[in-house]
Fold Glycoside hydrolase.
Amino acid sequence: MAGIKLVYIGGGSSRGAGTMASILAHGKEFDGSEIVIQDVDPDRLHAVETIARKIARSQGLDIRISSTTDRRAALTDADAVLASFRPGNFAARALDERIPLKHGVIGQETQGPGGFFMALRSIHIYEDIIRDLDAVAPNAVIFNYTNPVNIVSQAVTRFTDRTIWSMCEGPIVFPKTVLHAAGLDPAKADIVMSGINHNIWSVEHTYEGKDLMPLLDAAWEARRDDPTLSVHAKRMLRLAVAMRSVPADYFQYYYFREEVLRELQGARTTRAEDLLAALPGYWQHYEEQMNVEVPSLDPARSRGGIHELELAIDVMSAYYNNRSARLPVNLPNAGGALPGFDDDVVVEMWCTVDGQGVRPLPQKPLPHAVRGLVQQLAEFQYLAAEAAWKGNRADGIRAMAANPMVPTLAVAEELYDEMAYAHRAYLPERLLK
């Protein structure tokens, strides 16, 4: 079993307890390890650490668990870094979602201007993390869940020598939207997706060994007027049929932009505002569980459920235990593994993970009908990462204008300046002038 020092940055978040429960559910794969939970809020860190220690003890695991607000001390001699943090917390996300709506733009926390500004904040923190790692843990591998995972990875891989593998469950869960909408059993489907994180399409799609598309055609004809089918499910099924490829859910923001924009502008609250209202209930539950002998997290009262960051844990286990696994990972497109994208662009694709690292499996090109938009998003990703790591206001505006959700240069300029001012406490001075 792998005995490593794992540092969990952002472990005091509302997802922290669920993530630690998930790691400990794989505890035997990491017997002999040390886990240090790091964040900026000592009270929340204490709650997550207490819950984790009690779970580990109840399961008889040989895993040492501690917490600290001192990031450099935590990172000293680390083997692995699990990073999942949100600078500014959900209040910042609320601004990411709300401000763009005033300009007739979908904010979207990973895709649109909202995602861009989250990248600027996250990468600003990553600059410090990299400096710490270079000083005290030069060989540590970063397993990243900090969003937008593609832009974060693009910046770190392009401007540093650090190894960073970013994960997202999208390639696993996105096909289920279309399959359920079509009344099909996901267990009988084999769907391979690739592209840019949150913007991936199927390059292979079979059902019981046969082409999936005729089944989706029939389902669309049968269910296009079905009132029991949700609006989102109907959109995704329609999009799959039209483009002859299974889409990521996030493509609703591009192919149904005007409809989604009207829905968001008409909603009383944004998703972040809903989460802010729910947070006190999550922490009340965690405080209750830290005071019982054997904590048992209730999925309905835990942020994101109780099995968080599971894919990163699978990648870590395969790597440190040298057990070959087929898993989706975001990493540079070395050797042009995914046709149609530059070698240094971070793409999301299925890979083999083992003790040697992460290696892309043979990739088929995206269909021409959908490739252009994903390539445009890759160029935005590239510009966003550059602006975040070393750019100024002009670089930021260029990146903003390259985002497909932003309609004009004037909107890009106005939106950038308003959002930069709102987030100024979390941005480097160079991005404000």
